[in-house]
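re: the backbone from monday

yeah here it is again, tokenized this time
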């Protein structure tokens, strides 16, 4: 199976051919941005919690101060929405938002879904702040 990881604006392929990427529209620069997307869970798509949690979006705070992301949302083009509860992302720190179930920590959050969110054949991850303004996107 072809496994793909979107890092920055480039896809890193562990097996197979290159994937065309669509450039994101111009956005206001936010220190908190989507830094990577693992949209194709390694192995067979069995729907197991382990497989679901191998699908994730990494959000990084590139700023020099911590940022409160409470009520921010991460969504796809099919209206799957994850809303951050009370959460602060430290300066230079990252958090991965996994599709499946788990216990939230400072580095890993869970959507508690029973099926995959990110389409392997093309999708868009959209990060919006608490006011609903798009601060970062990644397309593949």
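seq for it, each position gets an aa:
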């Amino acid at each position: 199976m072809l496994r793909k990881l979107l890092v920055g604006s480039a896809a890193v392929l562990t097996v197979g051919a290159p994937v065309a990427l669509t450039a994101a529209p111009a956005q206001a620069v936010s220190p908190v941005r989507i830094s990577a997307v693992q949209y194709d869970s390694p192995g067979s798509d069995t729907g197991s919690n382990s497989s679901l949690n191998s699908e994730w979006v990494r959000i990084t705070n590139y700023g020099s101060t911590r940022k409160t992301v409470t009520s921010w949302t991460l969504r796809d083009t099919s209206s799957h929405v994850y809303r951050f509860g009370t959460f602060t992302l430290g300066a230079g720190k990252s958090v991965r938002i996994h599709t499946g179930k788990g216990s939230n920590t400072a580095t890993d959050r869970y959507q508690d879904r029973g099926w995959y969110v990110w389409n392997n054949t093309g999708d868009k991850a959209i990060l919006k702040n608490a006011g609903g303004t798009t601060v970062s996107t990644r397309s593949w």
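The domain at 4-17+29-139 is CATH 2.60.40.1260 (Immunoglobulin-like). The longest strand covers residues 32-38.
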